[in-house]
Amino acid sequence: MQYVPLTPKHEAFLAEHCRLSLEKSSGDFSVTSVDLLQEHTVESYITEMTQLIQSPNKLVTASQISKKYAFLMVTPFFASFSLFNLNLNVQSDNCIIVPKKSDGNLLPELSLKSLEAKPFETDRRTEMEAGLEQLFRNHISLVWDNLAKVCNSPLPVLWENTATYIYWLYETALLQHADDPLKEGIKKDFKYILEAPGECFGLNHNPFKKYYFEKQQLLKSDPEIRIRKTCCLYYEISPDRTFCNNCPRCLSGYVPQPKKID
């Protein structure tokens, strides 16, 4: 099956909920996904982003950028897959990251050179595994490998950064846009992701199964949350040095030092 253009309805949904830009890419800090497959380009991009987000070092920058990159790739892809029965074209040569700011925060958007997707033509599990290979093995996994080489970023952090968005999508976000029959399909899609072989991700294991476990309630008054295994280092750029609510450092008793004021 060949790619077909997205309908205006699908474009509007992805623009509203997944930060898909419907405008031609522009901006000094725009970067293509193909660029991020080159180590020297990754190094210059991370240097620019370190200054832009006022990060203390490239290690912290890489983690924060990986979170934003993961959101921009997985959110429109899996929304298209589970809500519209489409395999969105997120091949590296079709993606451009466009810098945007909101209330002083960096909130980039994804610009696709071609707003297109493939309708399903076989069983859903097979379509999912083909989509995972396109998105992860042939794209995100390669970008994460470059971030690891250039910034000494631990790959478990980058993959868990990605996993948190997968869990959020399939446990919360997508269900808000589905009726009961579609919700059952969303649950099956999530199951297919967690059961997919490591080859779909360019790894010898499934990274999303690795970090998926039962949520826990830390205090009786709090909702259940899934504590991460790794720290994303967000507190290093947080103005008040706060942790994410699912950070493992919260349980360790670690107290971050206040930021130095020049």
Main attributes of the structure:
four-stranded mixed β-sheet; globular; 262 residues; Transferase(Phosphotransferase), domain 1; 8 helices
Q: What is the highest CATH level, the class of the largest domain?
A: Mainly Alpha
Helical content, roughly?
Answer: 40-55%
The CATH topology of the largest domain is given as Transferase(Phosphotransferase), domain 1
Number of domains: 2
Our Rg estimate from Cα atoms comes to 18 Å
Mean pLDDT: 91
Strand content: 5-15%
Estimated structural class: alpha+beta
Strand element count: 9
Globally, the shape reads globular
How are helices and strands ordered from N to C? EHEEHHEEEEEEHHHHH
Going by CATH, the architecture of the largest domain would be Orthogonal Bundle
Number of helices: 8
Give the N-to-C terminal Cα separation. Answer: 58 Å
Strand order of the largest sheet: 2-8-5-3
Q: Major beta sheet, specifics?
A: 4 strands, mixed
Which residues form runs of ≥5 with pLDDT under 50?
Answer: none
Explain what you see.
This protein is an alpha+beta fold. The protein folds into two domains: 209 residues, Transferase(Phosphotransferase), domain 1 (Orthogonal Bundle), CATH 1.10.510; 36 residues, no CATH class. Helix content is 47%, strand content 10%. The strands form three sheets. Strands 2-8-5-3 form a four-stranded mixed β-sheet. The chain has a three-stranded antiparallel β-sheet with strand order 1-9-4. The protein has a two-stranded antiparallel ribbon with strand order 6-7. A hairpin with a 2-residue loop joins strand 6 and strand 7. Helix 3 packs antiparallel against helix 4 and helix 3 runs parallel beside helix 5. The chain is globular. The mean pLDDT is 91.
